């Protein structure tokens, strides 16, 4: 997946749009949340055909979709 891949992130019902690069650099101020989103991204990248994934990590419900 390219660094410029656009992504939609939903965390506990709040969504925003970002890129893979921004996720890797951190999308917020909370390290625990950034770590959780990064973990979901790693799982999404395991299957190149997969368009989205939903996981619960660190008490965050996270959905990550390729755009």
Alpha plus pi helix count: 2
Major sheet description: 4 strands, antiparallel
Shape: globular
Query: What Rg is obtained from the alpha carbons, in whole angstroms?
Result: 11 Å
Fraction of residues in β-strands: 35-45%
Q: What is the share of helical residues?
A: 25-40%
Order of helices and strands: EEHHEE
Strand order of the largest sheet: 2-1-4-3
Low-confidence stretches: none
Structural notes for this entry:
The chain is of the alpha+beta class and 67 residues long. The chain has one domain. The protein is built from two helices and four strands; from the N terminus they run ββααββ. The protein has helices spanning 20-25, 31-45, and strands spanning 6-11, 14-19, 52-57, 60-66. The chain has a four-stranded antiparallel sheet with strand order 2-1-4-3. The protein starts with 5 loop residues before the first strand and ends with a strand.
Could you provide a short overview of the structure?
31% of the residues lie in helices and 37% in strands.
Architecture blueprint of SSEs:
Elements: E1 6-11, E2 14-19, H1 20-25, H2 31-45, E3 52-57, E4 60-66
Antiparallel strand pairs: 1-2, 1-4, 3-4
What descriptors fit this protein?
67 residues; 37% strand
């Amino acid at each position: 997946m390219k660094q410029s891949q656009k992504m939609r992130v939903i965390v506990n019902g709040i969504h925003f749009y970002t890129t893979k690069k921004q996720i890797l650099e951190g999308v917020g101020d909370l390290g625990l949340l950034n770590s959780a989103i990064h973990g979901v991204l790693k799982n999404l990248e395991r299957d190149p055909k997969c368009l989205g994934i939903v996981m619960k990590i660190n008490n965050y419900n996270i959905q990550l979709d390729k755009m």
